[in-house]
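To: structure desk
From: M.T.
Subject: fold request, one chain
Message: Could you run this one when you get a chance? Sequence is below, nothing fancy, just the single chain.
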Amino acid sequence: RWDGGTADATTALKVDESVGTVENMTWTSTTQIDAGSNAYITSIGNSLNASKLIVDSTATIDEANLFTMDSTHLTATPSNEVALLIKSTDGTRASYVSTSFQPENMVVDGDDSDWNGGNALNPSGYAMPGVMSGDSTNDMSMTYIEGDNLYFGLTGEDLSNSDLLIYISTDGSGSTTGYNGMGGAHTLPVPANYVLWADSDSSYDLYSYGFLGWGPTSLSQDAISVDFSGSFAEISIPFSRMGGTPSQVDIVAIVQGESTADVSTVHPTQTIDSGSTLQTFSEYITVELTHNDLLTGSIADEVLVYRTYKGSSTPSVAKAYDVMIKTSADCAYDWAVTEDLSMATNANLNLDMERACPVIGTSLDDITVNEDSGAYSFSLTNMADDLQDDEATMSWTSAESNLVAHDGILVDWNQNGHQVTITPLDNQFGTMTYSFEVTDSNGLTDSKNITFEVENVNDAPVICNIDEIDCMPLFSEDVSFNNILPEGFGSHTKFLGDVSNATRSYIRDMANEQAPVRQVYTWGASVPSTCIAFTAEVNSLNELVLSENTNNELGGTCTVTLTLSDDGVGDQDAIAFDVDFSVSPVNDAPVIVDWNASMTDDEGRTVSVNPDNGSVNTIPWKLSVMEDDTTAANLTFSLAAMKDDIDHEDSDLTWEIESTDQCVYGNYFAASIVGDDLVLDLVEDATTNGFDWEVDYLNDNGIHQIGPTGSDYCQIRLVLRDTASAPSYVPNYDTALMPIADYSQGVATQEIGIRVERVRELVADYGFSANTGFSFNGVSNIMTGTYVPVTVDVTAGGDEGPYTYDHMLAITYHTDGHSEVEQTRYYAVPAYGTSVAITEDVYITKDTTNVWVEMDVKTCMANPCDVLAPATERFQTDSPASHRSNNQGQQGADWSKPGQYGSNATQTSERRPLLEDSNWCNNMMSSLGTAATCAHANQPSSTFEASGQDLPTVVGTIGAGAVPSFAPSIIAVSLAGVFVSALALSGRRDEDEEALEESIVEDELAVSPVIATILMVAITVVLSGVIYVWASSLAETDVKGVPRVTFSIEDINGGDADQGHWRISVTQSETDLATQAVEVRVFYVDASGSPQTFTANLADTNDVYGFNPANSDAFVTFVDQVNKEGTKSISTFNTGDEVYVRTHAPDGTPLTDVTITMSYAPANAQGALLRSWSGLAYDLKA
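Reply: Done. Structure tokens follow.
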């Protein structure tokens, strides 16, 4: 691009194989432009001299200038975007086709209506650029939808016997040699990239030019559409088949023979060599694409080609341009056009888009004339305005409709061009509609309807009921009596008629006055001011309205005067007509007054049912009382202000009470009427708004707590009655005066809801506490499988009572790690504010990790509770089981919903746990450190109790071995020979009992025969002493000799039958003995004088091992000092261990002359006496 400057060189611009622009040059050069091979130069705003141009045969120079335009719409700045179309007058170039000139939708169907927008006279609706070439017979039109399709339309072609080839150049990289379908290829004026070849609308394709020449394009699979079925041939080519929407296309369209290349039509129109089949074309159509509408209605410096030097220095014919702009308006589009714009120099336009459509003005309006007034004429010429047309040349059409006249005739009329004459017919009146439409030269129209009315001359109407001889109007009709109604009708209407001469109409009038529009009649009615029975008026519907005086209870007869007028011009008023009308009295039912606590009645009483306690009930017809209230003032309600009767005295009215289907009120209260008072007597413990979990099924199967149907209120019906016969103070009940009078007793009813407000039941809270937790009663070490006495405290809290029913506690202890049966035991509840210790033996094994206790509170069927009855009969039935969640009829596990009454898919338990205990989350306690979740039925989710305590340690044992059966004292005095023999025998026993030794204790010691021999030889001089020491040592081991163990004994509270005992303590033991091998025997005489022997193994799990007299009733108990081996606890009989023997026999007898022995007695092996005590007595010091 070269823009501006001065050139005085011999050649100002030399270009080869390039494309570009040179703009606004001042040059004095001999050669202005030398356009070499394949050069394409656009000269903008320069004065080109053909003699100073050198143009190669393959080169092109476009001489162009700049186009600038400003626009207005109706002389103002456009409020909408402005569409722009610039098209050369010779049809070879469309330099600007903005978006709004593109069609919204095109259908390839052989119909050109979507090309002209349905109105061929209106260019603003055309698909542009439209017709680009042709002679009005053989024409070619073009348009496109950006990003969609390129469209072609051809007229005058018989394509059933011809081929159509449309060459499209998009970027100049194609070929100037056309497609050789049959008969040769033409030479094109531009290098074409694509050619549409069509033999028929079923045989066609799009070809592209490539390295191998022409071949079918494969850029996309989008379909080409062709329709050659009529005189208008349509083609659409998707831009996707051409690689997208190009910035411009150059087009040459050829119609040639099917079997030869003979050309019959070419677009753009140009001279062809009629003597040659193959042609060299020089002209082509250029359409610039992708232009947008003008946002502000202005465009500047748009390049438009003035003329072209193509392949020579001889210019083409200078191009002139037609410019069209349009913008959205009330009537489609408004537009402006400039034609034959020369671009020999830069052009600058100012265009105003005037209104395109004609507008019929207000001067054409409704016309009204009087009947018989003669002809009415007017001209249409000046009744429409068109800014783009001469009003005198526009065409008008008119038509009549909507004739409304009595005989279907009204006027004579005719239209001659713009002149209209309307002549009303004699003696006719009515209306009709004239429709006028004006059309301008662009086919744009406007229309308007006017009404032509002929007014009539009026006659006065007449009031008459033609069904009666005397024309008497009937306001009410009966078999025997007319114009009489019983009191209480409130408002009675009688249609008097709104048109004349109709059936049941009391209007008589001239028939021809009712067409084309019926007359409007106005009725009037009045009664004398002395009439106390009713008033009379006529409403907008022409109905006589008789309105009863509701304050009058005596009836009466009054004269109704009717008046009538029409809306005609002239005499309007009919002669008035008098009609006598009567009202007979009717007994009005008494009224139960609408509740309004903010108002008072005539006696100053609050208009509501109020209790005698002085308070005011504000909720209409709702009373609330408190459960179990016995205060008369709170349960007595005055009805005096709630009764009224307009035709009876107050003392004539009486109240009654009836039940309703909504509830059985006797379940909650008794109700009675005392004068004007409603008096309630509440059923004990009854409530209408209790919760489901409060229903007491032990009390009349819960009927006193199950609420009324659909409400907290129990509905009762109040009945108010007046007298059974007519009162003497209303005389018009006499049928001689009022023949239709008929007295009947009146009754009024009103339902009133009684809510017995629930008072929360007093419910205790029995619970465990993690703070006190479990007491194992001093038991710290046990053997596996031991029943350990475990104590928990149960505290009584919650409400202090008294409680409706007696209860008992059902307590169950649980441990894991075994399958032993765990019993539920029943206990009396502690007194309020106290606690009670509950102790139960709990089974613990080596696998036990948790001790937990569950406490249920059971309602007793008897009061007080019958503790002798079995549990199944003692307590309220609980089926399905309570304390379980319910999921769609499936019950959850035990305690999954503490406090929840039992329910499954088929039934509901009658037990209500929340009436037994208010907080069930403290009814389960575990020894674990982390408490389980408690999903309480009516409290936020919390946790059960957890004490975080260690359980008694379960100990292991060591193995137990045999002991020889000889005494150390005998060994000490044996002879040397006997000693040697014994020593040798001991050696042999070492060998015989080798296997047995391994099963006792790993660290057992033995004395071999070799050692015995050495000792005998070496220390003969001290043989007796050595033998004594050796023998004594042997006796104190746990295997080969008698173990050496020393004890102490003391008596503790010997005279106490419950706690008195002897405590035997191990003060010294040289080795650990197996606990399970130690046996205690007690020899005593019972209360009957019989000797008894009691034997106890210290490893006995039945209240012996790990127990003492304080926590066990066992006769003998044993407390072990446990050894620790790593994480294991091992039980041995050793120093620090204590054995307890009670000073009283199991039957309570105090013991005297008691002998206690302690032996080491391994199972299936010989044992040894460790120690014995004799002469013991409960009252002697040990």
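Reply (cont.): Residues 964-1008, 1021-1040 have pLDDT under 50 and may be disordered. Let me know if you need anything else for the meeting.
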